[in-house]
Amino acid sequence: MTTLRCLWASLLALPLAACGAGTIVPPSAQVAPPGPPASAFMKQGPLLGADARQLTQMFGQPRLDIRETTVRKLQYANGRCVLDAYLYAPARGKEPVVTHVDARSPSGTDLDPAACASALQAK
């Protein structure tokens, strides 16, 4: 009798087992590997490779100094142009350096960064 009861229980459980056959496995909390160092993106141009101290020596105190986790933005302006310098660390533990520069007129028109840098130094 016990064997027959086990057989019936197994047969009744079989359709239910098919419903839950797949288990949901939560995605693992993987952290994306860090990208290449900022030095991999270095181009030639005005101010590229300069650190914050060098920029301050050239242009004085920045109008804006915005610091985030991986980037620092220094902004300089003199009424003729606005220059944004973006500094990233070339490697862990290294001093951040300029890897990108944007320049524009006060009205927002794009300008040549080298010309803007010259205008900022002339004051």
Q: What does the model show?
A:
The protein is of the alpha+beta class and 123 residues long. It has a domain at 38-122: 2-Layer Sandwich (Beta-lactamase Inhibitory Protein, Chain:B, domain 1), CATH 3.30.1450. It is 29% helix and 20% strand. It has three helices and four strands. The protein has helices at 2-19, 52-59, 113-122; strands spanning 64-67, 72-77, 82-88, 97-104. It has a four-stranded antiparallel beta sheet with strand order 1-2-3-4, with helices on one face. A hairpin with an 8-residue loop joins strand 3 (82-88) and strand 4. The protein is elongated and about 95 Å long. The protein starts with a helix and ends with a helix. Residues 38-42 have low confidence and may be disordered.
SSE layout and pairing:
Layout lengths: L1 H18 L32 H8 L4 E4 L4 E6 L4 E7 L8 E8 L8 H10 L1
Antiparallel strand pairs: 1-2, 2-3, 3-4
Provide the succession of SSEs: HHEEEEH
Instruction: Quickly give the CATH architecture of the domain at 38-122.
Output: 2-Layer Sandwich
Low-pLDDT ranges: 38-42
DSSP E strands, number: 4
> How would a crystallographer describe the biggest sheet?
4 strands, antiparallel
Number of DSSP helical runs: 3
Mean pLDDT rating: 80
Percent strand equals 15-25%
CATH topology of the domain at 38-122: Beta-lactamase Inhibitory Protein, Chain:B, domain 1
The CATH class of the domain at 38-122 turns out to be Alpha Beta
CA radius of gyration is 30 Å
Helix content, binned percent: 25-40%
User: What is the overall shape?
Assistant: elongated
> What order do the strands of the largest sheet run in, or round the barrel if closed?
1-2-3-4
Backbone structural class? alpha+beta
Quote the distance from N terminus to C terminus.
102 Å
